[in-house]
Amino acid sequence: MNRTTTPVRARWAESDPLLTEYYDHEWGMPVTDDAGIFERLSLEAFQSGLSWLVVLRKREAFRAAFAGFDPGRVAAFDGTDVERLMSDAGIIRNRRKILATIENARAVLRLHDAGESLSELVWSHQPDRSPAPRDDAEVPTTSPESHALAAELKRRGFAFVGATTVYALMSAIGIVDAHLVDSHRRGCSGLWRADGTRR
């Protein structure tokens, strides 16, 4: 008799099919290109104070509104673009977050002008060990590395990059493995072992 095992997921990933899809196929997988990291950093900032499900439902509208999160194109947005975005019902219309996204794109370009990349900066804060949570209560919301990265991003002119937002980014793009140790997705990035040590 065949037994089927129910996949173990974080509680938040079980509340809606869209979240389950995101958890099973994207969350925790490595992202190393500047545009991809800029997109996720921007979406994490827009999520601040809201549900991640709200952001996921609006993700394609965000991509259309923000020129595919191409930092070069977003950095050129002006006041007319801000008003366009403020009238776009497809996205989260928060002026401070919109302005921060544009300024963050400009900060990415300043990194490029200095011969650096957003990817190198973000990934340089990968810890030696990843958390190994056994249940949702043990999943961290910040880390020493996320505090350090948040401080460095702010120093470089980024906005809406608190330690919690940055840790969410680090979890989303595989810098840490915040999957539960019994999850079928634990170690999915290929970068971490189940016990939280680097491969």
From TrEMBL:
Broad enzyme group: hydrolase
One annotated GO biological process: base-excision repair
E.C. no: 3.2.2.20
Entry annotated with the keyword Metal-binding: yes
Bias (Basic and acidic residues) ranges: 126-137
Segments of this protein annotated with the region Disordered: 124-146
Domain of life the protein comes from: Bacteria
InterPro entries: Adenine_glyco (IPR005019), DNA-3mA_glycosylase (IPR052891)
PANTHER family per the UniProt record, alphabetical: DNA-3-METHYLADENINE GLYCOSYLASE 1 (PTHR30037), DNA-3-METHYLADENINE GLYCOSYLASE I (PTHR30037:SF4)
Name of this protein: DNA-3-methyladenine glycosylase 1
